[in-house]
Design a protein that fits this description.
alpha/beta, seven-stranded mixed sheet, 7 helices, globular, binds glycinamide ribonucleotide
Length: about 200
């Protein structure tokens, strides 16, 4: 079996989750899919450099330049079609996609979120804010969730979750780092392999 699912990774920032996917591809954790395109909505995202270093094709689409959410999403859709993408992975992609976009790819868009959904998720919960909210609430356990994306922000079917303990001395930054290292970078590649394998049959 040589056919692999073609994966596009959508990013906005540092791209450590993209790096985890690249590393997983190299180590064989991901063997049923191949990252063939990285799309960013931020021209300065370090994630773009991570992709270029691996000779992965990149594209940048700026909502401001394109003028509307619709034009922005159409540009992304065109790039996905041109590159014959099977799976779209949102890895730190800080832009909410409209229902018209998500409904075009049922069970084909995967997101990683840095909490145990349904806690600390939905509109306004992204990046460090998620960890600040967990610390404010005083929960003792948090984690990460990988889920399919539908029209409800962070509301689609859960693929994998992993719990991470919160320590008394944690700041949002130390907690973010532990959740990434001990949960996100593990379950995102595992989930991408699982979905890729199902797609290629
Ligand atoms: C990650 O913690 C990811 O889970 C989170 O942003 C960070 C991106 O880091 N995503 C969200 O909060 C989405 N709601 P990265 O660019 O280093 O992968």
């Amino acid at each position: 079996m040589s056919k692999k699912a073609k994966i596009a990774v959508l990013v906005s920032g540092g791209g450590t989750n993209l790096q985890a996917l690249i590393d997983a591809q190299k180590s064989g954790v991901i063997s049923s899919g191949e990252i063939t395109l990285v799309i960013s909505n931020n021209a300065n995202a370090y994630a773009l450099e991570r992709a270029s270093k691996e000779n992965i094709k990149t594209a940048v689409f700026l909502k401001k330049e394109l003028g509307s959410q619709e034009a922005f999403e159409n540009a992304i859709k065109n790039a996905l079609t041109e590159n014959e993408i099977d799976i779209i992975v949102l890895a730190g992609f800080m832009s909410i996609l409209s229902e018209s976009f998500t409904s075009a790819y049922p069970k084909r868009i995967i997101n990683v979120h840095p909490s145990l959904i349904p806690s600390f998720c939905g509109k306004g919960f992204y990046g460090l804010r998620v960890h600040e909210a967990a610390l404010e609430k005083g929960v003792k356990v948090t984690g990460a969730t990988v889920h399919f994306v539908n029209e409800i922000p962070d509301g689609g079917e859960i693929i994998m979750q992993k719990a991470v303990d919160i320590l008394p001395e944690d700041t949002a930054e130390t907690l973010q780092k532990r959740v990434m290292e001990n949960a996100e970078w593990i379950i995102l590649p595992q989930s991408v392999e699982k979905v890729s394998k199902e797609i290629i049959g």
